[in-house]
Write a structure and sequence with these properties.
Layout: H1 8-15, H2 24-43, H3 48-69, H4 78-89, H5 97-117
Length: 118
Amino acid sequence: MLLLFAYASPIHETQKDIEAGDGTTSVCVIAGALLNACQALLEKGIHPTQISESFMAALVKAEEILQEVSTPLDLADREQLIHAVDTCLSSKVCHWYLCRVAGILWCVSAALSASSLC
């Protein structure tokens, strides 16, 4: 894979042996793009504090957007929990299908136990 962002290359090199489908490469490319953008801003004379504060403002906005588009999860609804856990684990590498099923059932049981304590 050809990376256009020099900062992403060393990060990507450590991850290229594992095809997990979990977005690792995407995160590395985005991180590299952000670092390149920072370098360009620094070269234009923009103060690092201003860049950092801008990233924090973007973080706040991203959190607002995520809150708007998110769907509440009913911790008492076993089927909804299984679906949520299945979605989270579906891109992770498990060498055996049993690993995935066991993980889903364990996570759902743990969440239901925790919700009954509240």
